[in-house]
Amino acid sequence: MKLHNAFLVNGQPILGTYVASGVEELALCKEIGMNVVIGGHTELDVTTPEGAFCQQNGIKVMHHLVRHIYGKPRLADFVTPAQTEIPFVADLMKGVAQPSDELPKGVPSSGVFQIDDETVYYGKLTATHFTECVRGYRGTKPAEHRAGAFLFFPEACAEEIRKVRTSPNLWGYYVLDDSPGDALSALRALYRTVKAEDPGRPVCAGYGSAGSLCNFGPDVCDVMMFYWYPVAESWEPVAHGQYFRMLTPHQVQYMLTAAREMVPGIPFVGVYQSFDAKFDPDQNNIAVPTADQIREQIEDYVREGACGLIAFLCSKKHFGFAHYPYMVEELKAIHHEILETGELQVRPETEEMKRTRVQPVGFWEKPLPLPGVIPAWWTAFPFEDAKGEMLEATFGPDHEFDLDAVYPGKTWPVRWTVRRTFGGSLGFGELLGPHSYTKNCVAYAVCEVESPKQQEVILSIGSDEDALIKLNGKEVWRFEGGRGLTRDSDRVRVTLPQGKSQIFFKVRNRQGLWGLDLRVLDGEGKPLEGLKFSPQP
Prior knowledge:
Distance between the termini: 36 Å
Strand order of the largest sheet: 2-3-4-11-12-13-14-17
Structural class: alpha/beta
Oligomer: single chain
Strand content: 25-35%
């Protein structure tokens, strides 16, 4: 089966890796058949041994620009179009806002930032505010902006692009690696900056979950990179440490459905090896993939229409594929099959894969619809459960659903905000960023569903972690315990009355990622058509 040819490197599909350090590892990449590394100035500079090797051997570089998103200030509250003092928080990485007596690192004392479609000039910088602001700068329009959104500083990014764009080793730019928080506005501004300074290069962004698609949309990237860890930890459907084969095709189809609803035909690269299955005593029993599991995941990406393949890690020092001779041999065989024949032999789908398929095999431009998926929620979060009361912790949304209400939140005031889902999934953690910040927090989501008749339906539910659902004010389902977000973890039968009903979803995070998933099925467990949902994305 051929890889999709949306983007090529030296006339070949994208075949590469994260983190190849030094000439020895770059030489191994070349031997294996790789043509791209995700790197930086060392690999771009042809006067270094690494840069010279890349130039001589046709290895191209996807240059990291993520520092222009990660760690930058975020809005600390809702901002009106008339405000000239704009509050921010600068560091949530340790789970708290930056102390108020420190200035944010790497931010000019005066200058411009971009948020949504507005450019703002600020005359002064304090530890908590941009002051002397000129709104609607450079011909843009002053607008409202949401709390928690990242700000983007275009001058520093443009300067870096001008420094690297002449390198003969440069192939494109990498702008997102996992979910730092609500970065959609900043990513769009970064994309515009790249296209203004170096319009011929592709922009790539990485997405590790359906929830991370909160940072995807038009004018964000030219190529998506998909990655996850298809191994069970402490939750079903498979035992701890067991390879979860179904995760890759399932995730690709649902994530591409959501992505291609926004950007038809957007191509993707599959990131493999980022999972564990076989325990390695050299790593204190941290687990690594077997050769056949690497092959399976790569085949699954190719079957779903990938335009390239990227290894999670080359590094021999950090137990990447360079550390394991069996991985090197497997990757060499796979890559040379692709390079020599233009395709990869892909084994037939399992019966489970066929049964759960929601989109066609191979590349497709526009998705088939997914009935029964709730498209968006009114959301309010994060609230901190400081006392450890779990689902019994109560905050304003437990007592009222008032779209005009403002509640005290963990760091900034909380307002009801419409958030779209992606194939039914909504990631609160992906919208906030670091796991240390979202630990022991509570989120609320409310939607309205209109049924043409009274009917029995099945709510197909996923939650990370503790959660409850109320239908028209009555609790109909509850889960207490730790787990990851997996579609269809639980199902409950309920009766939808004719007309409009309210679904109330409360989710409490213990640690790690945090989110919900909900689909409405008919009495036989099939996606239900004919329902109307509010809000819309």
